[in-house]
Amino acid sequence: MTVHPPSLLPALFPNVVPLEPFLDGDALQQELATLPSVPVLWQVQSIDSTNRCLLEWGPRGLPQHFCLVARQQTAGRGRQGRAWVSDGEGSLTFSLWSVFDRSLQELSGLPLVVSLGMVEALHSLGMTSVGVKWPNDLWREGRKVAGVLVETTRLSSGQVGAVIGIGLNVALPPAVQDTFALPLNDLRDEEGQAPARAPVLGRLLNTLIPLLESFAQSGFAPFAETWMTHCVHRNQPVTLLHPNQTHSQGECVGLSPLGGLILRDPEGETHIHHGGELSLRFGVP
Ligand code: BTN
Predict the structure, then answer these.
(1) CATH of domain 237-279
(2) How confident is the model over 103-148, as pLDDT tens digits?
């Protein structure tokens, strides 16, 4: 793993406050050593948003699967223009830079591949109560435990650069939890023990990078069935809120080849939906 010296960071990222790496490098190295090509990983103490930073720097030539992990974000971004709040010690907050030879439409399944990779990584570490909620949240026991924000930019080469931002609640202090309207979950076990973050990050990257390469080759369709096996609302009645404030209701019966949500309405007709906010309640949204 190439870890750039913190002294280089201020020149490259003027708004980054560098520090000694805060995650255990040996634990990371151990996980990442099995990858055919080990990603470059930078750890920073504080940054506005790892996504914003990689969107700026990626097109200037970052290596494939460059990973920026921040202990703290001062302006973390969430989906649909929301803010993402994390905790310096209790969260994992990072972004990956990946370049694809695919159209923007074909990349619509990318966030789902990421959530699938995260669930598979966490299951392999024994955290088997985590599942996926469409399109790309991780849920545990009815509450959100992680979010994914994919942002894309077209490159001068004609390829698409994708910044894959991941925010994972590892052990959220009550004060941080209280800032959210909806109750959240984290990765602590029944005894309240949280897993160490470095091995979790290493396993996430170790699982995600091969999946991203496979997605780059074959698109989303081969992942659709496996994604559904981890889906927390599979065959459940749900409500999808559309951006124009209307909503659709139905039973969640599968995913389209591009990652669209297939709902069967009360009349038995199926419809594919892209976008919107899924509520696991059925009835009045
Ligand atoms: C969501 O709203 O569910 C997506 C949240 C994604 C948050 C992550 S944290 C690392 C990366 N940097 C950001 O500014 N956002 C993403």
Answers:
(1) 2.30.30
(2) 999 999 999 999 999 999 999 999 999 999 999 999 999 999 999 9
* C-alpha of residue 14 to centroid of ligand 1, in Å: 21
The closest residue, in CA terms, to atom 9 on ligand 1 is 167
Give yes or no for residue 1 having a pLDDT over 50: no
Domain boundaries, the chain: 9-218, 237-279
Q: Which CATH superfamily is domain 9-218 in?
A: Bira Bifunctional Protein; Domain 2 (3.30.930.10)
| Residue 132 β-bridge partners | 138, 231
23 C-alpha vs ligand 1 centroid, how far in Å? 19
Q: Rounded to the nearest whole angstrom, what is the distance from the C-alpha of residue 46 to the centroid of ligand 1?
A: 15
Instruction: State which ligand 1 atom lies nearest to the alpha carbon of 76.
Output: 14
Helix (H) or strand (E) run with residue 147 in it: strand 143-154
The pair of structure tokens assigned to 240 is 């999808």
Burial status of residue 280 (CB atoms within 10 A of its CB: 0-12, 13-18, 19 or more): middle
